[in-house]
Amino acid sequence: MIKKTVSGVDEALRGVSSGMTMMLGGFGLCGIPENSIAKLVALGVKDLTCISNNAGVDDFGLGLLLQQKQIKKMISSYVGENDEFERQMLSGELDVELIPQGTLAERCRAAQGGFPAIYTPAGYGTEVAEGKETREFDGKMYVLEHAFKADFAFVKAWKGDEAGNLIFKGTARNFNPCMCGAAKITVAEVEELVPAGTLDPNQIHIPGIFVQRIFQGQIYEKRIEQRTVRQRS
C-alpha cells in the first residue's frame, strides 16, 4: 500500500515559496491546520493568496500570517473577527475577494472533482456577478464561477492513516474535506496517525487518493472563538 507519511511539518511544506496560492481548511477557529500555518510564518514566505472561509483572529490562525504581512490577497466568505484584517483591507494593504459561503465551498469542490467551473444562483443581480457570465436554466438565472487553482491545500483532520485516509470530527468537517485534492499538493495534518488499513472504511470521510502528504501534528490549541457562559438556573 502506498504510504503518504512525511517526517513532520518541515518535510510536509517542502516546495512552498512566496507568491503561491494556498487553500486552508477550518471554520472559525475549528479544524485549523495550526502546525502548517505556524511553519508558513516561520518560513517567512510572502505575497501569498490564501483561500479560506475566514481569516482567523488577530493572534491565531491566518491572523498570524496577516500580522507578518505575508498575505497579499484573501479569498474568503467571512472575516468579521479579525481587527488586523479589517485595518489592512481598509488601508488598501490587502486585496480581498469576498465570496458567498456556499460558492466558496463549491469552487473548492469543483477543483477537487476536476470541473473547470460551476453555475450558481448565488449572487446573481448583485456586485458578486459583475463582469461574470450569466445564463438562464429553466427560467432561473445563474452566475458562472470558476474552480479555484491552488498550489497547496492545508487541511486538519482528527485521525488519518499512512495511506492518507482521513476522518474529521465535529465542525472540523467543514471546508477541510472539499479542499482535499483541490490543489496540486494536499497536506493533511492529523491529531492521530495510525498504520494503513486500521481505519474502519465506513468511517473514512476522505480517501487517501486526495492526499499527497500526511503527518501527525503537535500541540493543538483548539481555541474557542466566542466563549459564552451563563449562570446556572
From TrEMBL:
UniProt name for this protein: 3-oxoacid CoA-transferase subunit A
Key words, A-Z: Transferase
InterPro entries hit by this protein: 3-oxoacid_CoA-transf_A, CoA_trans_fam_I, NagB/RpiA_transferase-like
Highest taxon in the source lineage: Bacteria
Organism taxonomic ancestry: Bacteria, Pseudomonadati, Bacteroidota, Flavobacteriia, Flavobacteriales
SUPFAM superfamilies the record matches: NagB/RpiA/CoA transferase-like
Listed NCBIfam families: pcaI_scoA_fam
Annotated source species: Spongiivirga citrea
Segments traversing the membrane: none
Record carries keyword Transferase: yes
Transferase listed as a keyword: yes
MF term (GO), any: CoA-transferase activity
